[in-house]
Amino acid sequence: MDCYNIAVIIAGIDESYQNAILKGIESFASENCINADIFVSFSGVMGNQRHDAGEFNIFNLPDFRMFDGAVLLTNTIAYEPVVSEILSRIKAAGIPAVSIDNDIPEFYHIGIDNGKAMREVTEHFIKKHGFRTFNYISGPKDNPESAARLESFMSVLRENNIPVEEDRIYYGDFRAPSGPAAFRAFLNSGLKMPQAIICANDVMAVSCMKALSSAGVRIPEDIAISGFDNIYSSQNYPVELTSVARPLKESGELACRILLNHFKGIQQERSIILDMHPKFSESCGCAPPTKEVKVLKDKNYQNFAKFENASAYLSLINKMSCQLVECDSLNDYTKAMQPYIEKINAEEFYLCVCDDWDMRNEDNEPELPEFTVKGYTKTIKVPLAYRDGVFQTIPDFDSSEMLPGMFRGTGKGRVYYFIPLHFRERCLGYMIIVNSHFPLESSMFQTWCITISNMLENVRKIICLDYAVQKLDKLYTVDTLSGIYNRNGFVRGTSNLFSYCIKRKRSVMLMFIDMDGLKLINDNYGHSAGDAAIKGIASVIRESCTNGEVYCRFGGDEFIIFAADYTKDDAQRLKERIEINIDKANKLSNKEYDLSASMGYYITYPNPDDEIFQLVTAADNVMYETKKKKKLSKYLKS
Question: Suppose 601 and one of 36, 511, 584, 606 were both cysteines; which one would form an S-S bond, judging by CB atoms 3.0 to 4.6 Å apart?
Fold first, then answer.
């Protein structure tokens, strides 16, 4: 039986709002043969746009045409261009989608009456508690939910003849840093402190409460405060937060139910508005509900379990980080990761890297290739794969597949988490975690993901540094024109062998080769022709030296060859091979000139105080006598 496949687009699963909805999706998917492929970014929390660009890139991975449907939490993505592109691609794919909270006309919608709920909270503050001075912490201006809540708040103020002061409104991003940032902005505004602060969600409300308490402000005696969503457990904080309760887990389940109904052709409403109700409590001055002992015990145990869980994963991450930082190759890195992958209790895990992740250029070009920022390379490599209880190797695949066999029929729903691997905006690849509670149940999941990315980037830098050193070493030892050793390379290549011959009293041979007629070639056909002739002689020498000889371009049109344990016959045979190969090169060439070279060699048993370049001088003298007998004019074709 083939399961349905749905894509889930979401950011910030470490927040309680997203976490609760995802738990509903996971629960329904596992019970109804739905594969939920969850594409996650942790954007908007680091205050770094380059980091966010790397996080957003995971949304470029899915080809929505491969899915039966999608669930969208675009209200969690605080960057409109990214949202617009996602929606455009889903519409082009022609698949049904359910948008939670943001009402997108082309798609199914699950929402709440933001205006009604915010109206009830604001009216309660005015009519029940008599507050007349308000500050407001909003979400983003372009977020529909945020705009609806703010408009309702301002409408209630106007209806009650309370002025709406723009300086008392702070536009945040629904995340925790917005709370204290808003408090600082209010302090710096020069306005009188408010009687109450109304927040567009609980995350900002709780972080603002902490900032207020740190500044010595009492809640609610000095300033009352409220949130929205009711995602924070009241027993976790000294003051229980007034908020608006909504069925978040049920929203996730309902989104899947709507898609399943669509697949089965069941008629249903496009938009469903869920019930919700305010919960007035301590932070606005209302009496808290009765807290029974059993409830407190259960909550204390849950908090203890969460603390133990976080401590265990923190220890795991610290150990993993210490192991990974020692790695200087991808193979070392994946081996070091293996024991830690087993500890996250996933059915499967895949480390997928772009084929250009390490930025090395295998060609001879000096510049580095451009790194991937948007999308993924055509070829994806999988250096680490865990499934069926063992680590295994799987072949490279096309990134359009996301993961080979992912859509295979299993008869049961599975949950895939796709997490970006990147450093700043540079795309390194992505991770896939299958059927694991770790992403939703551990507050350390984001830290774990960042650690894996950063340590992979550390390996990449080491690899690139080693590669750069190799390139520099090559420039130091290899002649860039001829492609064979220069003098530095020749010294390095012969040093041990020359010392060995001195120690063992073995013979050495030094052959000096001087190209004939280079000046005439340069004068008649240009220096590019002269360069080609030099490369031609170097190629002949490379082809002729097949018995461990060390050779180099000594300078200009001069070349030298060093060999150990050479006799006069050996040297003569090498000289003949070079001459034969020069003749072959000339016959195959269509150039206006012939290659030619004068050669001389010197054989001796070196002494401890001898230097190799003394032999060069002796071989040069022999070569010179040979060269004097030639007529240079013969090297130009008539």
Answer: 511
Is 91 in contact with 74 (CB distance < 8 Å)?
Answer: no
Which phi-psi region, left, alpha or beta, contains residue 555 (left: φ > 0; alpha: ψ -120 to 50)? left
Separation in Å, CA 447 to CA 314, 315, 453: 9, 12, 10
Name the residue type at position 547. N
Cα 138 versus chain centre, distance: 32
- Contact of 336 with 323, CB cutoff 8 Å: yes
* 216 has pLDDT over 50: yes
Q: How many whole angstroms from its chain centre is CA 295?
A: 43
* Cis ω before 606 (30° cut-off from 0): no
CB 436 within 8 A of CB 417: yes
pLDDT at 373: 87
| Tokens read off for 394 | 């799987």
pLDDT at 366 over 50: no
CA-to-CA distance for 492 and 496, rounded, in angstroms? 8
Question: Residue 120 is encoded by which pair of tokens?
Answer: 């009830």
Which is nearest to 324 in space by CA: 450, 470, 468? 450
Q: Is 180 a residue whose pLDDT tops 80? A: yes
Tokens of 354: 């772009």
Whether the CA torsion 456, 458, 461, 467 is positive or negative: it is negative
How far is C-alpha 321 from the chain's CA centre? 17
Q: Which residue has the higher pLDDT, 234 or 92?
A: 92
Calculate the CA 118 to chain-centre distance: 40
Distance CA 351, CA 615 (A): 57
Helix axes 16-31, 202-214, angle to 10 degrees: 150
Distance of alpha carbon 403 from alpha carbon 414, whole angstroms: 14
How many other C-beta atoms are found inside a 10 Å radius of the C-beta of residue 206?
A: 23
- What's the Cα-to-Cα distance from 45 to each of 204, 232, 405, 502, 573, rounded to whole Å? 13, 19, 34, 67, 73
Query: What six digits make up the tokens of 629?
Result: 């007998």
Give strand ranges (E) for 567-630: 597-604
Q: Could you tell me if 594 and 579 are in contact, meaning their C-beta atoms sit under 8 angstroms apart?
A: no
Under the banding of pLDDT at 50, 70 and 90, the label for residue 638 is very low
The whole-number pLDDT of residue 444 equals: 86
User: How many H helices and E strands in the chain?
Assistant: 17, 22
Neighbours of 27 (CB within 10 A): 16
pLDDT in tens, 527-555: 999 999 999 999 999 999 999 999 999 99
Among residues 254, 256, 260, the alpha carbon closest in space to that of 272 is found at 254
% helix / strand / coil in the chain, to the nearest 5? Answer: 45, 20, 35
Distance between CA atoms of residues 347 and 368, nearest Å: 38
Q: What is the rounded CA–CA span in Å between residue 89 and residue 395? A: 29
Cα end-to-end span (Å), the chain:
82
Q: Taking the CA atoms of 513, 516, 519 and 523 in sequence, report the sign of the dihedral they define.
A: negative
Q: Are 312 and 448 in contact (CB under 8 A)?
A: no
Q: How sure is the predictor about 210, in pLDDT bands with cuts at 50, 70 and 90?
A: very high
User: What is the bridge-based pairing of β-strands 390-392 and 397-398?
Assistant: unpaired
Q: String of b and e for 248-274 (b: at least 16 CB within 10 Å)?
A: bbbbbbbbbbbbbebeeeeeeeeebee
Give this prediction's pTM. Answer: 0.75
Write the CB contacts of 609 (distance below 8 Å, at least 6 apart in sequence).
none
Reduced to 3 states (helix: H, G, I; strand: E, B; else coil), residue 565 is coil
Q: How far apart are CA 250 and CA 247, in angstroms?
A: 5
Range 358-378 average pLDDT? 67
DSSP 8-state code for residue 269: -
